[in-house]
Structure formats: structure tokens, C-alpha cells
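FAQ

Q: What does a record look like?
A: Structure on top, sequence underneath. For example:
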């Protein structure tokens, strides 16, 4: 159990590196072209950067899968409480972000959030359909 917890905590830190990596985000976001000091010192080629992003993406996917396995073991009430707390935290962050924006930026921000919610709902619907289809086969 202790090894699993350490691995889970380590995996949780990797997405931060992916966003901060050179070429990971457009200039002006997460520090522009400069990534973590470790990657900057390595002077990675474009191919190396691409492969590093690929490896970190795979790790992020594995992290989600591992996390989901443990979440599936939680009682429904605790899972619901966690989801509610995460939603409240997200809403608070969105409110803070929105408060920093000008009215026309707020409109674009709201539209962006709506698009993300729509895509998330569409994805959930697809996954539900796919699971039902797989059960029938």
C-alpha cells in the first residue's frame, strides 16, 4: 500500500512537468519557451521534446487509470463527497479567474467553459454508449 501511495503521489506531479516543458504550451503561458530547469539544461532537440511529451502523456493516462481504480473502491457516499468538493473548488477557481477579466473577456470565458462542458457531456454519453455496446457483444 505504501509503495502504491508513493507511486500515486509521484504520478500526480508529472502533469506539472508536461505543461512546463519546452514547447508544451504556447509562448506566454506557463513561462513561455522556458521549461523546468532540468529540461532547459538538457537542451533537448525537437524530437526529444516530442518523445518526452509522449512519455509524460502516457504517464498522465496511467495516473488517471490508477486513480480511477482506487476511486472505484471507495463507497459511493465518499466518492460523491469528493466529486462535490472538487466541483466546489473548480467553481471557486473559475469565479476568481472570471473576476480578473473585462466584460468582453468574461463573455468569451463563459463561452469557453460552456464548450468544455458540452464536450465533456458528449464524451460521457459516448463512453456510456460504448460500455453498453461492449456488454451486448
Amino acid at each position: 500500500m505504501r509503495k502504491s501511495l508513493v507511486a500515486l503521489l509521484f504520478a500526480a506531479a508529472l502533469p506539472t512537468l508536461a505543461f512546463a516543458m519546452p514547447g508544451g504550451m504556447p509562448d506566454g503561458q506557463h513561462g513561455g519557451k522556458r521549461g523546468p530547469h532540468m529540461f532547459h539544461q538538457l537542451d533537448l532537440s525537437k524530437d526529444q521534446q516530442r518523445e518526452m511529451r509522449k512519455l509524460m502523456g502516457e504517464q498522465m493516462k496511467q495516473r488517471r487509470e490508477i486513480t480511477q481504480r482506487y476511486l472505484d473502491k471507495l463507497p459511493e457516499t465518499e466518492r460523491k463527497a469528493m466529486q462535490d468538493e472538487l466541483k466546489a473548488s473548480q467553481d471557486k477557481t473559475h469565479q476568481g479567474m472570471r473576476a480578473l477579466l473585462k466584460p468582453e473577456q468574461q463573455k468569451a470565458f463563459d463561452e469557453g467553459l460552456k464548450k468544455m462542458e458540452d464536450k465533456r457531456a458528449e464524451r460521457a454519453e459516448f463512453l456510456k454508449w460504448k460500455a453498453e455496446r461492449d456488454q451486448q457483444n
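Q: Is there anything notable about this one?
A: The radius of gyration is 19 Å.
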